[in-house]
Amino acid sequence: EPVIRVVGLGKSYETAAGLFPALKGVDLDIRPGEFIAIMGPSGSGKSTFMNLLGCLDTPTVGDYFLTGENVAQMDKDALALLRNRTLGFVFQGFNLLPRMSLQDNVALPLVYAGADRETRREKARELLAKVGLGNYADSLPNRISGGQQQRVAIARALVNEPRLILADEPTGNLDSHTSEEIMRLFKELNAEGITIVLVTHEPDIAEHCKRQVRFRDGVIVSDTLTSEAAA
Ligand code: ADP
Ligand code: ADP
After folding, report:
1. What's an example of a GO molecular-function annotation for this chain (predicted)?
2. Interface predicted TM-score of the whole assembly (ipTM), two decimals
3. Which residue, 9, 131, 147, 188, has fewest beta-carbon neighbours within 10 Å?
4. Which of 11, 13, 53 to mutate to test the pocket of ligand 1 (most atoms within 8 A of CB)?
């Protein structure tokens, strides 16, 4: 069973000039263990698509099944639970809280999940160690580099043990060397079985993924495997 199944998915926005179709009937299956780059020019519908996958927005038409569950038919609470259990999010801008230690940033999703203090501390420290920042647990985000901040954001995305990570331009604010290091980390996570869907403009970044799906004008125009798929 696919982790994600999208059937005839469409999204139109209300604008002053009328309805604007940003996504026009997209079909896509994403199976467990895939590592997919979502590509395409600015305005092609990538963010719209990712917002739908993350259940941050609702489609105008079509169906979205997340781990087999029809998202449109779930009530708000059930959907929130499914999202928290299934998805981890990583953003271009890291989105760390500046006044909180790295440990507390990583542990934040566990606060919402109702975990006790000691569990949160242990889990956050374990994940900071996993992303190579075990010695920085008590530091503030502004004391570390952008690449390190993105590692913290990835640790935070992992804290609820998601099956799937959705990453929107995760290397967009990083230099190429640091971007390569972040992609190496994603590859390790993928090798451990986590499915990854990652938006990028950069062909060099997309080459690290196993599959490349390209959008143009709200439709998928190509869907190909890379040499990584065989590796
Ligand atoms: P991408 O992420 O590929 O740059 P987007 O999904 O952000 O593309 O946008 C696709 C199209 O939909 C663009 O033409 C954009 O201007 C339009 N769009 C995106 N969000 C909105 C919105 N909230 N209201 C109106 N138009 C939007
Ligand atoms: P990206 O960096 O992915 O291309 P955009 O700059 O296209 O992102 O969009 C950033 C945010 O603004 C998104 O949440 C998108 O939905 C919204 N947006 C994009 N285009 C429009 C628009 N024409 N009207 C209103 N909101 C928009």
Report:
1. ATP binding
2. 0.76
3. 188
4. 13
